[in-house]
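User: Hi! I'm working on a homework problem where we have to compare a predicted structure to a textbook description. Could you give me the structure for the chain below?
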Amino acid sequence: MNSKWFYVNYMSFSLVQLNMSMWMGFCSNRFVRITVNIILMFGVLMSVAACVGTKYPAPPSISDNERTSFEYKVGTGDLLNIYVWGYPDLAESVSVRPDGKITTKLIEDVSATGKTPSELARLVEQAYKTFVTNPVVTISLDTFTGSKNQQIKIVSASSATRTIPYASDLTLLDVLIEIGGLTDFANGNATILVRKFDGKSKNYSLRVDDLIRKGDITANIVMRPGDIMIIPERWF
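Assistant: Happy to help. Predicted structure tokens:
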């Protein structure tokens, strides 16, 4: 915390307390004096709490190689369009079930989650060889949610928890736009980012208030698949 800020606030508190003590000199009620002191101390503590950020460092920057190497993985709830070249009757749209599998006109219970559309297309081709000669399958997405380990999760004390699919070059500002910004009760600059590296989670600090309330674009970062944002509530 800035020592100059603390000194100024401490002096302000002292002056207020001096003025109040002069007023209380005319008051013999001990209960009133105790109550006023408690209120003053509570106000100072709230001011200090408001200016204390998280103890975690800022997140490291994302390399260009990592930003361009992202591959979308199919998730539950995705709507897939399946095309078989030369067999228009086999074209269809299927949803990925909650168990992570799909069923088509020719096959059933094919595991889909965690695979790229191309990987899933190769699996369907292998299964279709029993029914079709040299099948060539293409899979595209109509609607998507993404696999759970790629989704961005936003946990907030003052609003409902949200989950959004990750997309290439997704930024913190993009996430905030998607969830409709912060509520008046959210403590944006105390936001914690939980990010995994090699299977291990690390915590970082985000300056969300600086970004959306002050327009500080330096607080905008590039998100990674699987990032978790934890936004606490203000004390007052």
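For your comparison, note the following. The chain has three domains: 3-51, 64-69+150-231, 79-143. The beta strands are 79-84, 92-95, 101-102, 110-111, 137-143, 152-156, 162-164, 191-197, 200-206, 228-231. Good luck with the assignment!
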